[in-house]
Amino acid sequence: MNYFFSYQKAQIKRIFKILPFVAVFSIIFFTVTGLIAKLFLNNINFSSFSSSSVTSPQENGSRKISIGIIGNMDEPYMDFGINALQTMDSTKMSIELKLMNEEEAKKALFKGKISAYVIIPEGFIESIEYGRNDKQVIYVTSDGQQGFSDIIKTQIADILSALIVHSQSGIYSMQEELYRKKDYSRFDELTWDLNIKYVYWVLSRNKFADIKETGVSNGLSLQTYYFCAIVIFFLMILSLAANPFFSNRSTELYKIFYSRGVHSFSTVIAELFSYFIFMEIIFAIILIIMDFALNIDFLKIPQWKYSKNFKELFLFFIRSIPTVFMLCTLHFVLYETVDSVVSGILLQFIFSFIICYVSGCFYPIDFFPELIQKISNFIPTGAALKYSMLLITKNSTTQLLLFLAEIVIYSIIFLSLSVLLRFKKITGNKATLFRFSLKSACSHSGSNVEAGNK
Length: 454
Prior knowledge:
The protein is mostly helical.
């Protein structure tokens, strides 16, 4: 027992040697992350930093998507339609239309000054007016804007099919009814009136629905989601900063302790306890930094209710202990699987990024296919992320307990694997163990025979 406590004391001293460095690194990391979050969440205009921005600033600091328009403005209604979109339609808040020729549009798209450009062919308005619909609008974008391109093309298709085609059907049906009743006197008046009504319905379409934001995942706001994701990701890669603690370990020392009654379980527990204290201190620093940023209104996390309430913040810290402990055991089992320092760093780095990506630490998990979403619930970091979210939202006690149980199970599994791998390092491979057991058995049998002969 004295050996165990001596070893425990030595491990605490070792981990505390790297604590100041990691603490400073944590402060710098989350300060820089907070500054970046502040810029993005407040929609700071980045066009001032680069001449190739595809967005245009507005007076209120938000950004517009720039799209080039190529067409003959002398055509009837063309100029009226563009002006209506720029002044009366709700899209004026998010999209800026720029009139230009095709050569200018190609250069602007190449330089990144616009996201795309639309070519409206000659006679397009006349084709619509007479119901021929034989002219196609051409949408051009770059490879880098493909995600945005799909959205815009879908919107254009919806406008052309739902608005233009159905409007034509309504107008022509009305005109056919007037012809049938031979009511020619009101033909122009009613046609004009119906066209105006269609235009009004299009421009006021944003009044037909009430938009309500429910969050990106589990009802969380984007800010709250990414706070949880960044913390889990940071705690996961923290093992890289703690590499000196894991690398400076001697198998020969483990064998000496083993020969004196300090088994692999005891050495793993001694190291794990020291590492767990280290991780908890870093996690506390993270919470203090975030609480300070919220208290001075530098950042806003809508669903975070623990700010300016030390008791609640401390309870959140306590409730997060299972998550931190599970990540500690995961780090341990990864380092126990390799022998060299380089292999340990590479394994931790690659494994951390893969499971954090699949768990939704980089992109909201709701953006992934349904299969990936289901898999993420059974990944250690995925369970940790969901558990942290539920601690904040408090939406479902049942789900919270399920993820807590999953975290506890993972902790037991990882701890058991770490002990078994440590035991294997101390005693050697299975063949060695078999030879040792066989030799011991034979020696024991020989001693019994000799004693019997005597």
